[in-house]
């Protein structure tokens, strides 16, 4: 579904992505992990076309995403920090997004919207919202248009445990609906029941891309945090 | 796009700007018994305050909406459309603010050709400085630096440029400078706008010496049309460059 | 003396009793004015009925009255001086004089007075004449209620509307002059009054005064003339209640005063002129109770002037109030109203407590480098002016109004 081939990106002298090649298929829930500054967010932004690669290319459903924007109809994105025009109310924001994606043919999915109780605070201005509520809004927007691909950048950061659970349940549900889900997170423990694959990036290079099952077998560990720790310490880099 | 307009119109700063302009204009026209003095005061506002507010406000607004712009970019929209919507939204809101704040008093107190020229020039200057703000903010990532650049640009157009021109005038005092001056004045939208108003307001003095040359150029329909086209270019070129930059910008 | 006067009077009365009427009609025996003139005697009246008369240059050598009925047209066919007056006490009225000759050698005129006195020229219409009404060595003549129109394109090919040369005690009243070189031209004319005339759209000056002293001009309107009004090399000239407006251009002045002395400029209105009053080599001039409004410069006083007194005038909405080219100032400004004055009046005597300096810094800069005008009213120039007000450096120290008025005078 999403194929990145030899993607490189430089910010000045700093190489953020270095010859990165990955393939992401439908029905998977992939965790993008790696230390801070390893290039996870940049990679996501590259997929979204927010960052333009210096070399290499990314295809979405077989089409190069360069100079293309229609493919984004099939992507729902939840940013790390969601900030919205201060003077807009939640309702207006939603109407606006619906306006923007009026070409959407997948129908809308307002499950999270009601689950988070946003329907009760439709008239609140974005300026007055707490960070957590804004994250909720971002999450709602990511799922709202029933896209084929959902990209979540640190989704649970700032969410209260209840909301985090709701979101997790939603992610699992959508995975089972055959969607491709890309998640970045620092907190490996919360990815445990979610992910089917792991992409590990370090210094902009791909260390490995493996299914969780295979990893669990090679390392003999069950918990994801342990799995990664084992790989790191034993240097079991699987090509 | 209408959402940008809604957002900006609700912005307290724009509201304050409108009220500030309105109060100031009425004060200027109300206090002075002759409208010329009021007009002069308003001219100063138009040439100094309006560009400053427009460029600083727009720059800050762009930086503050950085994340929102990111969100929009992740949506199925072309980047040009996002950028142009931002421009249109700001241009519309700030023009509206100017129209209400300065336009109404102008039309009440000086409903003649001078007033109308001032109104048009003010509108064009607002839009031009929004375009320049877009260019400044697309080129610099850092917010503080971007605002600094915007203020410097404003300072350059409203003060430094004229200083340089005056210096040049005295350096080349022995040469006929009238025609080169026409060319030079097109390099600064504030100057060009000011000359257009000057031709209506101080026509008598302008005709004094070199006025003939200026009048021959700016006074004719052709010259005025050219000036307005140049002012439009001052909007379009920065806007166009900023769109191109934005299209290739990493967010 | 008295006896002689009485005698003259009696003689005059006798003549009047004796006076005849001669009517010129194109269908009658007397078909031309020339015929009538030949028949007439001093004191006769020649009545000319409507029609077109091509007289190839009329010369009036008798003291007659020439009256037009319904404006008969006398056509100079672009070749002749239409009417020449060579006798005293001639009256010409109600005629329409057109198409005088045009020459760079001779001063062809519509009506020309040669060396005569007590000539009255009134209620005539002159159209497309080279010079309009010309007085050469005339005295005690009256020129009133005439309408003079010409359609000149350039100064070389045009003459003046009312032209007086070496004349005395003339009265030029209520004429309308347009499209000539100078509207009214005076050279070596003394003791004359020019009043209630309207001179507009003349190529050069509305009124041109040279070497003419002890004259007054009152209640005239000078509008949109190429270079306004020029008064040169004269003394004891009185200018009252005139309107000077729209003298626009490179060298256009409401009034240009050059080498003038002992004169008064009072209660005039100067509106929308490039320079309302330009003074060069002027001495002892009193400028009082005038209104200067919306001019480029209200006054330009060259350093060659002395003892100019400017008292009790209103300066309103002028781009620059006063301009000068020197730093030595021997002139007095006092008790004027300046709308640009920003001082205060603590003792409430309606006089500002701090002096007003009518020469702005930018006026000085523009004087030195005219092209700098293009920067006028920019942020920078207002900064200049503000600093200059606090710390005067470029503007002449002595040029100030020590007691400016707080409110405009009612003029």
UniProtKB/TrEMBL annotation, chain A:
Gene3D superfamilies named among the record's database cross-references: P-loop containing nucleotide triphosphate hydrolases
InterPro entries: AAA+_ATPase, ABC_transporter-like_ATP-bd, ABC_Transporter_VariousFunc, P-loop_NTPase
Keyword Protein biosynthesis: no
Highest taxon listed in the record's lineage: Bacteria
Keywords of this entry: ATP-binding, Nucleotide-binding, Transport
Boundaries of every ABC transporter domain copy: 2-228
Classification via Pfam families: ABC_tran
Molecular function, one GO term: ATP hydrolysis activity
Family matches, as PANTHER family: ABC TRANSPORTER ATP-BINDING PROTEIN ALBC-RELATED
Name of this protein: Cu-processing system ATP-binding protein
Species this protein is from: Sediminibacterium goheungense
Automatic annotation (TrEMBL), chain B:
Signal peptide location: none
Gene Ontology MF term list: ABC-type transporter activity
Membrane-spanning residues: 12-31, 43-63, 84-110, 116-135, 147-172, 221-241
Keyword Methyltransferase found: no
Membrane found in the keyword field: yes
A Gene Ontology term for the protein's cellular component: plasma membrane
Annotated Pfam families: ABC2_membrane_2
Keywords for the protein's UniProt record, in alphabetical order: Membrane, Transmembrane, Transmembrane helix
Name of the protein this chain belongs to: Cu-processing system permease protein
Source organism: Sediminibacterium goheungense
From TrEMBL, chain C:
InterPro entries, per database record: Carb-bd_sugar_hydrolysis-dom, NosD_copper_fam, NosD_dom, Para_beta_helix_rpt-2, PbH1, Pectin_lyas_fold, Pectin_lyase_fold/virulence, SCF-Subunits/Alg-Epimerases
Keyword check for Oxidoreductase: no
Pathway(s): Protein modification; protein ubiquitination
Keywords, comma-separated and alphabetical: Repeat, Ubl conjugation pathway
Membrane-spanning residues: none
Record domain Carbohydrate-binding/sugar hydrolysis: where: 40-187
SUPFAM superfamilies, per database record: Pectin lyase-like (SSF51126)
Protein name in UniProt: Nitrous oxidase accessory protein
């Amino acid at each position: 579904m999403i194929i990145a081939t030899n993607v490189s990106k430089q910010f000045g002298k700093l190489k953020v992505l270095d010859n990165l090649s990955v393939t992401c298929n439908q029905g998977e829930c992939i965790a993008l992990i790696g230390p801070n500054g390893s290039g996870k967010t940049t990679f996501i932004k590259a997929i979204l076309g927010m960052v333009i690669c210096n070399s290499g290319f990314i295809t979405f459903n077989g089409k190069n995403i360069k100079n293309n924007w229609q493919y984004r109809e099939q992507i729902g994105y939840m940013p790390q920090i969601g900030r919205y025009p201060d003077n807009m109310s939640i309702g207006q924001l939603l109407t606006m997004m619906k306006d923007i994606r009026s070409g959407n043919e997948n129908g809308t999915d307002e499950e999270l919207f009601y689950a988070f109780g946003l329907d009760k605070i439709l008239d609140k201005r974005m300026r007055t919202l707490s960070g957590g509520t804004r994250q909720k809004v971002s999450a709602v927007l990511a799922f709202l248009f029933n896209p084929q691909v959902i990209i979540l950048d640190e989704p649970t950061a700032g969410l209260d445990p209840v909301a985090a659970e709701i979101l997790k349940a939603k992610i699992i549900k959508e995975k089972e609906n055959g969607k491709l889900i890309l998640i970045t997170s620092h907190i490996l423990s919360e990815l445990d029941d979610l992910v089917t694959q792991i992409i590990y990036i370090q210094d902009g290079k791909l260390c490995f891309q493996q299914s969780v099952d295979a990893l669990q077998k090679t390392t003999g560990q069950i918990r994801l945090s342990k799995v990664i720790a084992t790989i790191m310490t034993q240097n079991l880099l699987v090509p | 796009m209408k959402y940008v307009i809604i957002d900006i119109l609700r912005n307290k700063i724009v509201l304050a700007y409108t009220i500030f302009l309105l109060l100031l204009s009425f004060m200027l026209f109300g206090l002075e018994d002759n409208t010329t003095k009021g007009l002069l005061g308003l001219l100063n506002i138009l040439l100094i305050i309006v560009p400053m507010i427009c460029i600083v406000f727009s720059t800050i607004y762009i930086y503050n909406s950085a994340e929102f712009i990111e969100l929009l970019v992740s949506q199925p929209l072309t980047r040009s459309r996002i950028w142009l919507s931002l421009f249109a939204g700001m241009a519309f809101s700030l023009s509206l603010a100017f129209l209400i704040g300065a336009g109404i008093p102008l039309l009440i107190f000086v409903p003649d050709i001078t007033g109308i020229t001032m109104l048009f020039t003010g509108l064009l200057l607002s839009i031009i400085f929004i375009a320049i703000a877009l260019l400044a903010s697309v080129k610099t990532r850092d917010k503080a630096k971007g605002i600094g650049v915007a203020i410097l640009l404003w300072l350059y157009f409203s003060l430094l440029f004229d200083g340089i021109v005056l210096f040049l005038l005295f350096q080349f005092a022995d040469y006929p400078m009238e025609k080169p001056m026409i060319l030079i004045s097109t390099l600064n939208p504030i100057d060009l706008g000011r000359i257009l108003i000057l031709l209506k307001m101080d026509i008598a003095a302008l005709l004094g010496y070199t006025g003939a040359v200026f009048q021959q150029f700016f006074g004719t329909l052709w010259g005025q049309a050219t000036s307005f086209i140049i002012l439009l270019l001052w909007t379009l070129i920065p806007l166009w460059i900023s769109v191109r930059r934005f299209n290739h910008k990493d967010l | 003396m008295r006896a002689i006067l009485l005698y003259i009077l009696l003689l005059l009365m006798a003549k009047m009793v004796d006076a005849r009427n001669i009517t010129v009609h194109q269908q009658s025996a007397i078909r031309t004015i020339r015929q009538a003139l030949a028949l007439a005697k001093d004191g006769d009246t020649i009545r000319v009925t409507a029609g077109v008369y091509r007289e190839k240059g009329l010369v009036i050598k008798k003291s007659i009255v020439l009256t037009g009925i319904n404006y008969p047209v006398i056509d100079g066919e672009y070749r002749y001086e239409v009417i020449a007056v060579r006798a005293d006490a001639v009256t010409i009225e109600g005629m329409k004089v057109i198409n005088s000759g045009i020459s760079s050698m001779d001063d062809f005129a519509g009506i020309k007075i040669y060396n005569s006195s007590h000539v009255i020229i009134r209620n005539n219409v002159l159209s497309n004449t080279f010079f309009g009404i010309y007085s050469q060595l005339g005295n005690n003549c009256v020129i009133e209620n005439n309408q003079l129109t010409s359609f000149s394109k350039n100064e070389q090919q045009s003459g003046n509307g009312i032209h007086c040369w070496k004349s005395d005690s003339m009265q030029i009243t209520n004429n309308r002059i347009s499209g000539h070189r100078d509207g009214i031209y005076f050279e070596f004319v003394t003791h004359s009054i020019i009043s209630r005339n309207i001179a507009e759209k003349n190529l050069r000056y509305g009124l041109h005064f040279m070497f003419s002293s002890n004259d007054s001009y009152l209640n005239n309107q000078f509008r949109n003339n190429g270079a306004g009004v020029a008064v040169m090399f004269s003394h004891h000239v009185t200018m009252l209640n005139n309107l000077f407006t729209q003298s626009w251009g490179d060298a256009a002045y409401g009034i240009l005063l050059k080498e003038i002395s002992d004169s008064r400029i009072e209660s005039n209105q100067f509106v929308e002129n490039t320079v309302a009053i330009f003074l060069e080599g002027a001495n002892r001039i009193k400028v009082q109770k005038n209104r200067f409004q919306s001019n480029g410069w209200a006054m330009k006083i060259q350093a060659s002037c002395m003892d100019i007194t400017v008292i009790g005038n209103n300066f309103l909405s002028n781009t620059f109030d006063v301009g000068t080219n020197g730093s030595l100032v021997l002139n007095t400004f006092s008790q004027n109203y300046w709308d640009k004055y920003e001082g205060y009046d603590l003792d409430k005597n309606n006089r500002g407590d701090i002096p007003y300096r009518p020469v702005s810094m930018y006026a000085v800069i523009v004087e030195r480098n005219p092209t700098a005008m293009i920067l006028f009213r920019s942020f920078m120039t207002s900064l200049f002016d503000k600093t200059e007000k606090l710390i005067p450096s470029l503007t002449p120290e002595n040029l100030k109004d020590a007691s400016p008025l707080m409110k405009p005078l009612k003029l």
